[in-house]
Amino acid sequence: MAKRARLIYNPTSGREEMKRRLPEILQRLERGGLETSTHATSGEGDATLAAAEAVERGFDVVIAAGGDGTLYEVINGMAEKSHRPPLGILPLGTTNDFARALGIPKHWEFAVDLILQQHTRTIDVGKVNQRYFINIAGGGSLTELTYEVPSKLKTVIGQLAYYMKGLEKLPRLRPIELNIRSKEQDIHEEVMMFLICNSNSVGGFEKLAPDASLNDGLLDVFILRKCNLAEFIRIVSAALRGEHLNDPHIIHFKTQSLQITSPDYVQINLDGEFGGTLPCTFSVLPEHLPIFVDESGTSTYK
């Protein structure tokens, strides 16, 4: 008996490529034995509701087509459920950090074929208060950029939009006072930003968390201590090369959970989306969600 799949897609994602490709994608899935119905998202939060409904209706497979924002919403719709069907990813958005971290091909035909091969890997999911993230949680001046970039701009100029916003914001970088508590660390100091990584690919920084693993049951925590603009630029350059871990401005540790509080107003960024404000408890749900990946483990993001 053919398996039933629910394809949740963002029609405006990645220069609207998904909308153009939909008939071919559906045909390829059907030929591969997946009876597929679709849900086009209509606004913020819609993909979360659609994913929750797909699980409740007993679909065998859920497919998220779009960028990291769509994927973030779909995961938030699935993570609470006691039964979680495997998730397929078609990375057709402006930013596809998570697909890159998993080696899911960027080309839609290869990504569809990977789903049809039905080989899964069960990955950790991060939890922040009552929300979930799959790639990264962060806070501090620079992490606020991603949701300040208007979505039309994001679609048209892609990754560049983030960097332009970043450069414009650099002179306004200000430290925040943080209290961070975990089994491993008790930190109270002024910091520029903090990042909590589940995977190793963040915002095009492939080497930010070089030894982060998606199924080790741990979160990689990076804290950038208070620094001036010149130091900040030097550290970011080092991070692009993966040479930041020994910098005295960087605190790095792994943990299963941590609490962060601040007397300041600090917004949280979850997988590039606004995720509320501090205080927050961050934890990891080990091996929580099956995702279709390349069986050989050698697939590259291309």
Automatic annotation (TrEMBL):
UniProt-listed Gene3D superfamilies: 2.60.200.40, Probable inorganic polyphosphate/atp-NAD kinase, domain 1 (3.40.50.10330)
UniProt protein name: Diacylglycerol kinase
Entry's family note: Belongs to the diacylglycerol/lipid kinase family.
InterPro entries for this protein: ATP-NAD_kinase_N, Diacylglycerol/lipid_kinase, Diacylglycerol_kinase_cat_dom, Lipid_Phosphate_FormReg, NAD/diacylglycerol_kinase_sf, YegS/DAGK_C
Highest taxon of source: Bacteria
Cofactor(s) the protein needs: Mg(2+)
Gene Ontology annotations for the cellular component aspect, listed alphabetically: plasma membrane
